[in-house]
Request: fold
Amino acid sequence: MANIVLIGFMGAGKTTYGKWLAKQKNMVFLDTDEMIVEKKGMSINDIFSKYGEAYFRDLETKVLREIIESGADNIVLSVGGGLPVREENRRLMKSIGNVIYLKASIDTLCERLARDTTRPLLKGGDLRDKITGLMEKRQAIYEEAATRIIETDNCSEADVRAMILSNEV
Ligand code: S3P
Reply:
C-alpha cells in the first residue's frame, strides 16, 4: 500500500513534485486531471463548459475509485485541487496511503496562477478574490484530509523536495 497522494490548491505544485517524487522513488505517477482529460478526450476547460462542474466532480470520484480498484500500489497520485472537498474522496485517498498537503499562501498562489488560463474556476473577475473565496472553503478540508502538511511558502524547489522526502514514512 506504499502510496503517496499529493493534495493542495491549484498551483501548489502537486504535479511537478509528484512527477519528481515518483521518478526519485521508482514509483508510478498518476494524476486525476490527466486521467480525466485522457478519458474524455477533452480539456478540463471544455469539460466544465460543456458538462458543468458537478459532472467533473463525479468523474474525479470515478477515476479515484478506478485507481483503487485496480490495486493502487507503489503510486504517487496527484489529485485536482477540488477533489478533497468530497468526503468520500477524502476517505478513499486515506485508504490508499499517506496524504501530503502542499500548502501555499494566497500571495504565493496569486503569483503562480496570475497568467493561468487552464483552470475554469479562476476565469474572469478578480483572481485574488477567487482564490481567497475557494481557500476559505477548502483550507480546513485540506488540513483534515492530510496526514502531513508541507508549507511551501518562501521555500526553494530544493527545500520542498527535501521536505517531501523527509516527510515520507
Ligand atoms: C480544480 C483544480 C484543477 C482541476 C480543475 C478544478 C479545483 O486541478 O481539477 O480545474 O477545483 O481546484 P489542479 O489543482 O491540478 O490545478
DSSP finds eight helices and five strands in the chain. Residues 10, 14, 33, 44, 80-82, 119-121 surround shikimate-3-phosphate (CB under 6 Å). The mean pLDDT is 96. The CA atoms of residues 85 and 141 lie 6 Å apart.
